[in-house]
UniProtKB/TrEMBL annotation:
UniProt xrefs under InterPro entries: Beta-lactam/transpept-like (IPR012338), Peptidase_S11 (IPR018044), Peptidase_S11_N (IPR001967), SPOR-like_dom (IPR007730), SPOR-like_sf (IPR036680)
Sequence ranges assigned to domain SPOR in this UniProt record: 360-445
Protein name per UniProt: D-alanyl-D-alanine carboxypeptidase
Keyword Transcription: no
A molecular function (GO) term: carboxypeptidase activity
Native source species: Chelativorans composti
Family, per entry: Belongs to the peptidase S11 family.
Keywords tagged on the record: Carboxypeptidase, Cell shape, Cell wall biogenesis/degradation, Hydrolase, Peptidoglycan synthesis, Protease, Signal
Domain of life: Bacteria
PANTHER family tied to this protein: D-ALANYL-D-ALANINE CARBOXYPEPTIDASE, TRAFFICKING PROTEIN PARTICLE COMPLEX SUBUNIT 12
High-level lineage: Bacteria, Pseudomonadati, Pseudomonadota, Alphaproteobacteria, Hyphomicrobiales
Residues spanning the signal sequence: 1-15
Length: 445
């Protein structure tokens, strides 16, 4: 099967500018092949891999069970095909929703899950982006749970490989769903869109995807003869061409994969399921900077081991601190309604009122936030204490406050501005963290 599909395949990038691909040894993290692996692409229904990741996380956290009923809102029921066709007000189980995503790639089921777990589709999209950052997917932004067209929803082949590895490593007890060839829903027998299951030796999932803008996408997991890889093909010109290219990559690079012991490649970050709005909003700003993954050569190792367990614990502590301090993000995510082109994680809950002393940073510049306080005087005092204590990069920084409202109460962001770019803001924030001062870098409103 592999040999037949592999015939006549030259470099797909030469004929198809949408193409991107990568093959990663899932035992060691070594990149065996890559082409345009860091170029932005539309994920299409590969998006549902993250929807399923958060669903599995909710199952393990006891927030839902496989038999929990998921009710379809009018919004979910109105999603375009492919879909289950469940009417508004009707429900299915979590397990049925999982199977619908894995096989039929049902958009209505994805939205219903998102609304149940996140409170709203916008909240859940913010949770997805936050989890992507925790997993090291530095070039991925989610705006919805299904992958239907949204110009701002982007990813890369490398990020999708990370997510595929994370699903295998973190949820071995749920991973069997990705091998489902078909399932019954009512009187219907629903087959899996992944045509390599059962056709190519060792393929056990994971997910297909297609939109006109994205082309034909596929993430495949292969485990056979003591070797294990995760491969990604994005931007295929047809389902057949995509499958052919994937089969070709498996045939060529699986024999080069290690037969040694499995390594823990991606540590799990803090759970971002409950309370969804608080954690989702804070998580995107609470994690330390993850260095961008270099394009690299196929002989290099995918640096998925960068998250040590100690760092994961530190992230949990920081997450709790930021959730408690920066309540503006709760309001931001809660009030966002998935407006195209606006990331809920970065949306202000109300127009910021900037104090006259100290002066504010200009809109569009990078700033560091160190706290949120109930009064302006406390926020200003905290800023002055930080400036005296730290010095260095903060010596010439511009301290300022911003007012915001949440549930009828007034709070004040304590921020430092005056940073030339993202790199300098992140660098200053990293130095603060070394001194046990929690912070995050963001764009000024």
């Amino acid at each position: 099967m592999i040999a037949a599909l592999a015939l006549s395949l030259a470099s797909p990038a030469m004929a198809n500018p949408k193409y991107a691909g990568i093959v990663v040894d899932a035992k060691t993290g070594k990149v065996l092949y890559e082409e345009n692996a860091d170029s932005p692409r539309f994920p299409a229904s590969l998006t549902k891999m993250m929807t399923l990741y958060l669903t599995f996380e909710a199952l393990d956290a006891g927030k839902v069970t496989k038999n929990t009923r998921i009710t379809f809102s009018k919004n979910a029921a109105a999603e375009p095909p492919t879909k289950l066709g469940v009417g508004a007000g009707n429900s299915i189980t979590v397990e049925q929703a999982i199977l619908a995503l894995v096989t039929k790639s049902a958009n209505d089921a994805a939205t219903a899950l998102a609304e149940h777990l996140g409170g709203s589709e916008a909240n859940f999209a913010a949770m997805m982006t936050a989890k992507a950052r925790q997993l090291g997917m530095t070039r991925t932004v989610f705006r919805n749970a299904h992958g239907l067209p949204n110009d701002a929803q982007k990813t890369t082949a490398r990020d999708m490989a990370r997510l595929g590895i994370a699903l295998r490593e973190h949820f071995p007890h749920h991973y069997h769903y990705f091998s489902t060839r078909e399932f019954r829903f009512g009187k219907h027998r629903i087959g899996n869109h992944n045509r390599l299951l059962g056709a190519v030796k060792g393929v056990d999932g994971i997910k297909t995807g297609f939109t006109r803008a994205a082309g034909y996408n596929l993430v495949s997991s292969v485990q056979t003869d003591g070797r294990s890889i995760v491969a990604v093909v994005m931007g295929g010109s047809s389902a057949r061409a995509r499958d052919q290219q994937m089969a070709n990559l498996i045939s060529r690079y699986l024999p080069k994969a290690s037969t040694g012991r499995d390594q823990q490649l991606i540590a799990r970050g803090p759970v971002v399921i409950q309370p969804s709005a608080q954690v989702a909003s804070a998580a995107a700003h609470s994690l330390p900077k993850i260095a961008p993954i270099p394009a690299g050569r196929p002989s290099e190792v995918l640096p998925v081991t960068a998250y040590a367990q100690e760092q994961a614990k530190a992230d949990e502590d920081m997450l709790a601190r930021i959730v408690a301090q920066d309540v503006v993000r709760v309001a931001a995510v809660t009030e966002a309604k998935a407006t195209d082109g606006v990331d809920p994680v970065h949306t202000a809950s109300a127009p910021a009122q900037v104090s006259s002393q100290p002066t504010s940073s200009a809109s569009g510049q990078w700033v560091i936030q160190v706290a949120s306080m109930p009064t302006k005087s406390e926020a200003l005092r905290f800023l002055e204490e930080m400036k005296e204590r730290v010095g260095g990069e903060l010596a010439h920084a511009n301290p300022f406050t911003e007012v915001f409202q949440h549930k009828g109460k007034t709070f004040h962001r304590a921020r430092f501005g005056g940073f030339e770019d993202k790199v300098s803001a992140w660098s200053a924030c990293e130095n603060l963290k070394k001194q046990k001062i929690q912070c995050f870098a963001t764009m000024a409103n």
